[in-house]
TrEMBL record:
Transmembrane segments: none
EC number, as in UniProt: 2.1.1.193
Record-given protein name: Ribosomal RNA small subunit methyltransferase E
Any one Gene Ontology molecular-function term assigned to this protein's record: rRNA (uridine-N3-)-methyltransferase activity
Reaction(s) catalysed by this chain's protein: uridine(1498) in 16S rRNA + S-adenosyl-L-methionine = N(3)-methyluridine(1498) in 16S rRNA + S-adenosyl-L-homocysteine + H(+)
Purpose: Specifically methylates the N3 position of the uracil ring of uridine 1498 (m3U1498) in 16S rRNA. Acts on the fully assembled 30S ribosomal subunit.
Record keywords, A-Z: Cytoplasm, Methyltransferase, rRNA processing, S-adenosyl-L-methionine, Transferase
Subcellular location: Cytoplasm
């Protein structure tokens, strides 16, 4: 994706995030970052306490324990990087990079979600766990 197109998409997502945060009266604004390539992504790993990869192969294997275990054990104010792949999934090279960086692979249920809706699903699960179960 060209840098101009990526920039426009980033601005659009930031506006959507801002409006959604205002509507839901959030106390902080989640970061949304679009990257041009995998190399750009690797530079972000060291900034986070946990790297969580929503992986379709984990979902196909009925993996359901990683996300709840992470949410139960993650200290307050930890920084979690959530990575969602494109339609069609991650390449073997991308998976190898994630594994080298101790990423946690998780399924998001028994259904394969669209790239656009998987992040919303994860944020909803985190919100339910952190804001409703333990508030």
């Amino acid at each position: 994706m060209g840098s101009k197109k990526l920039s426009k998409k980033q601005q659009r997502l930031e506006k959507i995030t801002q409006e959604a945060a205002e509507q839901s009266q959030r106390s902080f604004l989640p970061n949304v970052t679009l990257l041009a390539n995998e190399k750009d992504l690797s530079s972000f790993f060291s900034q986070y306490d946990y790297i969580l990869v929503a992986y379709e192969e984990s979902a196909k294997q009925d993996e359901t324990a990683t996300l709840p275990r992470l949410l139960q054990n993650v200290p307050v104010n930890s920084r979690i990087l959530a990575i969602f792949g494109p339609e069609g999934g991650f390449s073997p090279e991308e998976i190898a990079t994630f594994e080298q960086n101790q990423a946690l692979f998780c399924g998001l249920g028994s259904r394969i979600l669209r790239a656009e809706t998987a992040p919303l699903y994860l944020l909803s699960a985190i919100s339910y766990h952190c804001e409703l179960l333990y508030s």
